[in-house]
Write a structure and sequence with these properties.
The complex is a heterodimer of chains A (310) and B (355). With 310 residues, chain A is mostly helical. Chain A has 13 helices and no strands. Chain A has one domain: Orthogonal Bundle (ABC transporter involved in vitamin B12 uptake, BtuC). The termini of chain A are far apart. In chain B, strands 1-2 form a two-stranded antiparallel sheet. Classes of the chains: A mainly alpha (310), B mainly alpha (355).
């Protein structure tokens, strides 16, 4: 493999690494939001997922158990949200913030015994013959299981929302919970399921952070990725396939800082580190300025509490 | 099964009872958790909530920690009432510290009594400027203020990091990422010798009083309340929604910036990379606990300030990680939000649930 191609492969691999947690979390949040639930706790659910995954993987030595623990922890956090916001009709914005504040604290406490331990990163796929091909082998056939899962889930969610009856019902619940309730659909149960799925995916995103992206645990290691994932859902105007473009765009911006420094561009590291956040703002502005488009794509009941008696 | 039945009107009693019930439930949860991890619950609770208040120094520290929470919380409460979700107060706090603190660093030799007032104004302006960005993006481009104000928090923290690592780093600091200490003229006067209690606490009380007056008596306060409670009515009444978003953001940002300047010109005494233990986020809890009312914010600010002191005490004498504070705060907010359902609904026990 020539040096040029090797460098390109390294860049693309790091983009994939930065994009995957965003994609996982945003895909889950998209489903929750399409059902009408705005869960701002993504950052907290990711952190708890990350620490649970790391703790399980480093104590049992099994990556599979780590991934499952991350997903379960994220879903458990989402269920706390669901009880408060869906059963007790608490303000969804405030409840989501509470999930994040709690998740930051809980993960720091649970992870205090795991600081400074490093794990082997999740192994890449090894297809005999294919994974060893130059350039494409490593890119297409050598990623870890969560990368493939993140891509598969986008397709699965797009199919589910667009092509299945249950997906149609979920969207109906998100667009008008009163109408969906009147027809006889179990609004609250569907929202519980969508919220739990969102948490599960955030947990997987956290697991990817602590098992693959930087295989260790550090307090606040998600560094705002949960919030960027929330912005990506707006960026995608609530359409799954557009998340893919958004997540990889942001992955690219995130790794720009590493490679700019490698290329000797003399910009302070802190300024480069601001880029993903500034880009998020820029993207939000560009998408949101078209009010009519936002109004027609956003689930109409998003963030609103549902009580059958009104 | 238990069902929720709309009361038809708000229960005033529950508005005030809900925070009390939430605190009680949090304490019970704390006892259960401490017992579960093998710490004597009584010792733990005494360490957490009583011991920090046992000395004059401890009481002064409570005021030092409560001041930023009350300042920020009052501003956020006014905004939340109008459904303006500024959750980037942490960033506005940081910018206030940068703008006001930077001004103080410009005059290291000055003994002029004007230095501190100028820094205070710069701090307020810095926080307002940082809050003006999401306000502008919201009113001009319809961009969600929750996400933009939060993104700007990260940007503010990197900006502070850049300044103290780079151009503003103290030449005598042995390469530590910190600025020079502020001169006496650029520091907040200490009120009680031997403590860190400073003028910020007094200002916080004044802000609470003014906030109360504005909310209760001023037309603006009335408009902020109506926009939040009945947005359509506010539109019919001809209230200028754009103006109210700006107002809510600028008040919240200005007070957060003021708190940030007080923090660096008071207890910290210089600019360092980490100037806040999450005051901007905790103030969100303070605002809700305080029922979005300045007087309530004062009480809630004291309670959550105690959670910081308790966390520090638990760290020192029980060997617990300081993250316990965050868990306590999160659980408290969970219970509060859960109890708040009883303001609008009453629980009813029903055997059968006919459709």
């Amino acid at each position: 493999m020539s040096g040029e191609a090797g460098w390109l492969v390294a860049v693309v691999l790091s983009v994939v690494g930065a994009a995957t947690p965003l994609l996982l979390a945003a895909t889950g949040e998209l489903v929750a939001e399409r059902s009408g639930v705005l869960n701002l706790g993504v950052e907290g659910m990711m952190l708890v997922g990350a620490v649970a995954a790391f703790a399980a993987a480093s104590t049992t030595g099994s990556d599979t158990l780590g991934i499952l623990a991350g997903a379960a922890a994220g879903a458990a956090m989402a269920l706390v949200f669901a009880v408060l916001a869906l059963s007790l009709l608490a303000n969804q914005v405030a409840t989501g913030l509470a999930i994040t504040i709690f998740g930051v604290g809980l993960s720091a406490l649970a992870g205090s015994g795991f600081v400074g331990i490093a794990l082997e990163p999740l192994p890449g796929l090894a297809v005999p013959g294919l994974s060893d091909l130059p350039v494409v082998g490593r890119l297409l056939f050598g990623q870890d299981v969560l990368v493939y899962l993140s891509l598969a889930m986008v397709g699965a969610v797009a199919y589910f929302l667009g092509r299945t009856r249950l997906g149609l019902i979920l969207r109906a619940v998100g667009d008008s919970h009163d109408a969906a309730h009147a027809i006889g659909y179990p609004v609250v149960a569907i929202r519980y399921a969508a919220t739990a799925f969102g948490g599960l995916m955030s947990g997987l995103a956290g697991a990817y952070m602590s098992l693959a992206y930087t295989p260790m645990w550090a307090e606040n290691m998600t560094a705002g990725r949960g919030w960027i994932a929330l912005a990506l859902v707006v960026f995608a105007t609530w359409r799954p396939w557009r998340l893919l473009a958004g997540a990889y765009l942001f992955g690219g911006i995130t790794i720009l800082q590493l490679h700019a420094q490698g290329a000797g561009i003399a910009v302070p590291s802190q300024v480069m580190s601001m880029l993903p956040y500034l880009a998020t703002i820029a993207v939000l502005v560009v998408i949101s300025r078209d009010r009519a488009k936002i109004r027609s794509s956003a689930p109409a009941s998003i963030g609103k509490a549902f009580h059958p008696a009104g | 099964m238990l069902r929720l039945e709309p009361r038809g009107r708000q229960s005033t009693a529950m508005i005030y009872a809900s925070p009390v019930i939430a605190v009680a439930l949090t304490l019970i949860t704390g006892i259960v958790i401490f017992a579960a991890i093998g710490v004597d619950p009584v010792t733990a609770l005494v360490t957490f909530f009583v011991e920090p208040l046992g000395t004059p120094y401890g009481l002064a520290e409570l005021a030092v920690k409560a001041s930023p929470l009350v300042l920020i919380g009052t501003g956020l409460a006014l905004g939340f009432r109008a459904n303006v979700w500024n959750i980037g107060a942490e960033g506005q706090f940081t910018l206030g510290a940068i703008a006001g603190g930077g001004l103080g660093l410009l005059f290291p030799e000055s003994e002029s009594p004007l230095v501190l007032p100028a820094m205070i104004l710069a701090g307020i302006a810095g926080g307002m400027a940082w809050a003006a960005i999401p306000a502008w993006l919201k009113t001009r481009f319809n961009a969600n203020e929750i996400l933009t104000s939060l993104m700007l928090t990260y940007v503010a923290q990197y900006l502070l990091g850049y300044l103290v690592h780079g151009p503003w780093r103290s030449p005598e600091g042995y390469n530590f990422p910190e600025t020079r200490m502020f001169s006496a003229a650029a520091s907040l006067p200490v009120l009680v010798e031997g403590t860190r209690l400073n003028v910020g606490a007094v200002v916080a009380l004044v802000v609470v009083a003014v906030g109360w007056l504005v909310l209760a008596r001023a037309l603006v306060g009335f408009q902020l309340r109506v926009v939040g409670l009945a947005p359509r009515a506010a539109r019919f009444a001809g209230f200028d929604g754009t103006r109210l978003v700006w107002l809510a953001m600028l008040i919240g940002g200005g007070l957060a910036g003021l708190a940030g300047l007080f923090e660096v010109a008071g207890p910290i005494g210089q600019l360092i990379p980490a100037i806040s233990p999450g005051y901007g986020f905790t103030a969100i809890i303070v605002a809700f606990m305080g029922r979005l009312h300045p007087v309530g914010v004062l009480l809630a600010g004291l309670l959550l300030a105690l959670s910081y002191l308790g966390g520090e005490a638990a760290q020192i004498s029980l060997g617990m990680p300081s993250a316990v504070t965050g868990i306590f705060q999160g659980v408290l907010l969970f219970y509060l939000l859960g109890c708040d359902v009883l303001i609008l609904y009453r629980p009813r026990l029903r055997r059968e649930a006919p459709a």
